[in-house]
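[Q] Does anyone have a clean structure-token version of this?
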Amino acid sequence: MNPRHDVFGSVHLGCIVIETNRFADWRRFGTDAIGMHHDDLDTGLMRFRLDDHECRFLLRRGPAEDVVAVGWHLDDHTTFEQIEARVRAHGVPVTQGTAEEAKQRGVERLLCFPGPKGITQEICTTPLTTAEPLRMLASGWVTGDSGMGHVAITSVKPALTRGYFNTVFDARLTDCIDETISGVRLRIRFLRVNERHHSIAVAAVRGLPIDPVRTRVQHLNIQAASLDDLARSYQRVHELGFDMALTVGQHTNDKELSYYARTPSGFEWEVGWKPIVIDESTWEPSTHQGISIWGHTPVGRTIVDKLDQFRLGTRSLLHPEKTVPALGGGGIPDD
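[A] Here you go.
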């Protein structure tokens, strides 16, 4: 067997696939509120762009009202084949994406395989770019070598989830946050696959095997190019009547200034600005107390909301979380 080659730094969050039947609401949310570029492909597909890539968010019609796939752009075909070999070597089934599926995502090659929480993981090479001007309210979004933000999930098996992303992408632990929200103690682990502080965040309730979130993802994040872009999108979310989950605030670990809006599908959407960039030569993982230095105040939470969250948590006891044990290995506890 060939020696394992570390793919860290060659992996970038590239494309998110969302299944929804609320196309009109999503069009208003993504275009008019958040400020992204929008393209209709046909009656059952639409896309959002952030930069010169043809696709960053692919929305397809369906009942899930959730993220159903996460696409990772890889630097080259060698990295693609190395990751494919890893997945196959662990006995996990893989599916070659069709030419049409690759075209929808704006990539040259596409491979799909099972991921944590039932979210399909996709690896892609050679994202297709377009010279078509961006028609959007924001001045720009930060992507490039860091990828396009991050995905946050909740899990009752965070060590297995961390093990999965380590096995597949050589993800590294950046840091952790301990937080108590409405009496519930959480630990959040932040994983990076390149210089971005984190591309994956995994939150778990401490001491209880419950998941209080209905959707597979808790939130998605994109990074605004300027503070003005962040402030103007925050104002538009309010003016257009979309729900705000958390007001503007600053995180303790990555120092990102951000707010959280609630999407038409129910999960949250974080717009952030200016998180720190990791220096691999000096960085050491640490644990922070509390998720925010200031702000990030919950908006409109009532006792009904809290009871509903408790109901969802207890319901999760009856529905075991989907995992991929072959790729999670024995799991990786916190350092």
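[Q] Thanks! Anything notable?
[A] Residues 134 and 170 are 34 Å apart (CA to CA).
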